[in-house]
From TrEMBL:
Belongs to the Fmt family. CDD domains: FMT_core_Met-tRNA-FMT_N, Met_tRNA_FMT_C. This is Methionyl-tRNA formyltransferase. The gene is fmt. It holds the Pfam family Formyl_trans_C. Residues 204-304 form the Formyl transferase C-terminal domain. GO terms for cellular component: cytosol. (6S)-5,6,7,8-tetrahydrofolate binds at residues 109-112. It catalyses: L-methionyl-tRNA(fMet) + (6R)-10-formyltetrahydrofolate = N-formyl-L-methionyl-tRNA(fMet) + (6S)-5,6,7,8-tetrahydrofolate + H(+).
Length: 317
């Protein structure tokens, strides 16, 4: 088939590679514009752009797919199929109607659950034990199209959003490789989503990253994993942001419950910092104080004045 591929992050690279391995002609790749990254704010190309250039595929980076110029560009390519994976833009009807075989999307959740831009992170944050990938026909709504195929992937306690991105990227690419021949042969039975069962996974905000110590130790453990290694969860120490990159549930329930306020430091030693939560206790393992690099909590404790009874979430005193 003659395919236009649309994707941006590393999650989409595996799908692009499998499309090419299937012998299809990728006539163009659409991806988001280069963005400034890092402390030096240097313009950095998306991973999909780098992969496309490596294969000699023309790359287009429109700011808005709804622009007349972008729509005309897609029309001029005359694709049989458009494949998207974590592209980051909603395609207008004018683009959806271009390919004769339609437009499909590789989405990182078991639809209709977790429609939206952050399904992988929020599945971990919400304590899900299973997620997966759904390939669907695209419609004008947000991830509302009919489902073509899906695959389940378990979420382990050792998973972060980073490891789950990798798992779902590979699972989605494999599923796409099996699905494309069915689409080409016209052998697809798409199933409508039950819209009443839909849940949403909007992009993460700064408030999603803030640790609320009144929540349970398990909930905070899931929050930290779901935000690692991208944004990171944070609390306050001496009025400054204090990130937590890795932690474990010390006790799901604790005799200290009710005796100490959530956020209270219960102990601090070579094995980390134990903090009271709304239910149970959490041991902080890898942290990042304001203005410093990520480090083991034990390393930070060598020079920090941290004592039992002090609190995270306020001024630390």
């Amino acid at each position: 088939m003659k395919i236009v591929f649309m994707g941006t992050p590393s999650f989409a690279v595996s799908s692009l590679e499998r499309v090419l391995e299937g012998g299809h002609e990728v006539v163009a790749v659409f991806t988001q514009p280069d963005r400034p990254k890092g402390r030096k704010r240097e313009l950095t190309p998306p991973p999909v752009k780098a992969a496309a250039i490596n294969h000699g595929i023309p790359v287009h980076q429109p700011e808005r797919m709804r622009s007349e110029e972008a729509i005309k560009l897609v029309e001029s390519l005359k694709p049989d199929l458009i494949v998207t994976a974590a592209y980051g833009q909603i395609l207008p009807r004018a683009v959806l109607e271009v390919p004769r075989l339609g437009c499909i999307n590789v989405h990182g959740s078991l639809l209709p659950k977790y429609r939206g831009g952050a399904p992988i992170q929020r599945s971990i944050i919400n304590g899900e034990r299973v997620t997966g990938v759904t390939i669907m026909y695209m419609a004008e709504g947000l991830d509302t199209g009919d489902m073509i195929s899906r695959i389940e992937v378990p979420i382990e306690d050792t998973d972060t959003s980073g490891t789950l991105f990798e798992k779902l990227s590979i699972a989605g690419a494999d599923l796409l490789a099996r699905t494309l021949p069915q689409i080409e042969a016209g052998n697809v039975t798409a199933v409508p989503q039950v819209h009443e069962e839909a849940t949403y996974a909007p992009n993460l905000t700064r408030e999603d990253e803030r640790i609320d110590w009144s929540r349970s130790a398990r909930q905070l453990f899931d929050q930290v994993r779901g935000l690692s290694p991208m944004a990171g969860a944070f609390t306050l120490w001496n009025g400054e942001p204090f990130k937590v990159w890795r932690c474990v549930v010390e006790r799901a329930e604790s005799a200290e419950n009710g005796a100490q306020a959530p956020g209270t430091v219960l102990s601090a030693d070579a094995e980390g910092i134990v903090v009271q939560t709304g239910t149970g206790t959490l041991r902080l393992l890898d942290i990042q104080p304001a203005g410093k690099r990520t480090m083991p909590a034990a390393e930070w404790l060598k020079g920090a004045r941290l004592e039992r009874g002090q609190q995270f979430g306020g001024d630390g005193q």
